Amino acid sequence: MSEVIVGIDLGTTNSEIAVVRDGRVEVIPVSGGVPILPSVVGIADDGTLLVGDAAKNQYVLHPDRTVRSIKRRMGESVRVTMGTADYAPQEISAIILRQLKSLAETHLGHAVTRAVITVPAFFSDAQRQATREAGEIAGLEVVRIINEPTAAALAYESRHKGARKALVYDLGGGTFDVSVVNLESDVVEVLASHGNNHLGGDDFDRKLVDFALEHLKETNGVDASRSVTAMARLQRAAEAVKIALSDQPYATFAEEYLLERDGVPVHLSLEISRDDYEAMIKPYIDETLDAVHLALSGAGLTVSDIDEILLVGGATRTPLIVRRLEQDLGLPPRREVDPDLCVAMGAAIQAALIAGVQTHTVLIDVTPYTFGTSAIAELNGEPYPYCFVPLIRKNTPIPVTKSEVFYTLFDGQERVDVTVYQGEDPDALNNIEIGRFTVEGLLDNALAGNPIVLGLSLDLNGILQVTAREKQSGLERSITIANAIARFEQDKLDEARNRVHALFVEHEVARPERDSQSDSRRLGVEARALVEKAERLLEKAGAEDAEDLVDAIEAVRDALDGDDASLRAAMASLADLLYYLEA
Ligand code: AMP
């Protein structure tokens, strides 16, 4: 057997090591079962060498004994101080590489002496040489240095044949790079790249910390930035809040006994919405998109030349990034390979190619369908009550949990109906309905716009858990949909979609006219939706119920020309009837 060659992503914030074994790519656990090692090195008070989480933990209190982000200094003739001694950047990087090597040896049960290491596409010769030297100091023969976007493209390389062009968008903790690459057979060529060495997820954390500091100043009159420990706690909390906001519409900073003011403890409990957070980070995202266009023009290409967008780096899990890229480039980014591990996986694939070992494509469990619900929004420029709102998108790795916020339409609205669909069509009625339920007993004094948080959780067995929660009261209802994934094979799905589509064409759905008063317009839209729903139920209703239903429908239709109050009253009667019929 030829000797194994490992692939290493030596990152600014985190590093990973992977290997191909039995034809499969395996990212090796390096930190308490997790395959991610923080790229931080330090010396403890007793002189012990710390690498990874232990060093990261001591950074805030002992920055003099800790070194992080050494990748930014690679290739410079400088020395960095750690404790009582000075080190070259290569030496600090070598400590990280040595730790990875030794953890891999323990995991694999044999020596590891050869590696492929990745570097950013923009790295100069001096920076590449310094990386090679770091490997050698760590006792590794560096068989090849490859570009990070090349590695990412290799990890994503699937059954595609022929040439294609990809845009690799890589946003990590502290660096941003975008590269345009040409993929042909097994050769990946970087055509152009651009970026900012000081932009990343850490900047997003900083915005959230500032937000919390401001709040503490306003509510408690304290300046928490003066306390090192309070700042350390806020920084950790901010990252957790940021990560939570990638999957849910609200998150809370909750830090008890953060600090003291005149002997009185100060607690922090501050909720932030995803909308507010997105407004904070928008300027950063704008900057990355400017770089995307610069890289494209550097490669002499336009948006329409790009066949796919590949996401790399933990911060690309931010939904705003995915949305903005899709809007700007007109195609949905691929994100089925874990963005934190993608580069190390690609490095391992390159290593296996060099060693002449067969590899399979990276195998990941992803959902083959999109799941979501419907809401009133614009479709083809018109307000429409059944716009599909995807929550879990096709090709998302599973298990996955996502939630979104929706709002009630009327003052005093007591219930909401939730319908869950599977499909891709912007019109929910063209997708497959896979479940529905009602949440009743909402706060009776709530005004229109009462937030309802809808959560979808899909597990590896294809079981979909759907939960709707009234945010203010905590009132919650949920359903479980078994076999959400296995429910329809593709041909059955197409068949069902055609069937629903045919139905839809036959029974033309009422699409409301525009009205200058937006409230009245919303009411009109909702009224027509109610009528449409009632008409669909007419077929199922018995003779007596059908008569009542027809009367109630007529009453709503008549009221459509009258004032809002009578329309609401007519709608309430019809809704009651529907509720009774559906029960
Ligand atoms: P990397 O350097 O690629 O390991 O990326 C690390 C950055 O990704 C850090 O700023 C993390 O806080 C950030 N990150 C990790 N997971 C998420 C997430 N789910 N949503 C947003 N940012 C994340």
Automatic annotation (TrEMBL):
<keyword id="KW-0547">Nucleotide-binding</keyword>
<dbReference type="InterPro" id="IPR043129">
    <property type="entry name" value="ATPase_NBD"/>
</dbReference>
<dbReference type="InterPro" id="IPR018181">
    <property type="entry name" value="Heat_shock_70_CS"/>
</dbReference>
<dbReference type="InterPro" id="IPR029047">
    <property type="entry name" value="HSP70_peptide-bd_sf"/>
</dbReference>
<keyword id="KW-0067">ATP-binding</keyword>
<dbReference type="GO" id="GO:0140662">
    <property type="term" value="F:ATP-dependent protein folding chaperone"/>
</dbReference>
<comment type="similarity">
    <text>Belongs to the heat shock protein 70 family.</text>
</comment>
<dbReference type="GO" id="GO:0005524">
    <property type="term" value="F:ATP binding"/>
</dbReference>
<dbReference type="Pfam" id="PF00012">
    <property type="entry name" value="HSP70"/>
</dbReference>
<keyword id="KW-0143">Chaperone</keyword>
<protein>
    <submittedName>
        <fullName>Heat-shock protein Hsp70</fullName>
    </submittedName>
</protein>
<dbReference type="InterPro" id="IPR013126">
    <property type="entry name" value="Hsp_70_fam"/>
</dbReference>
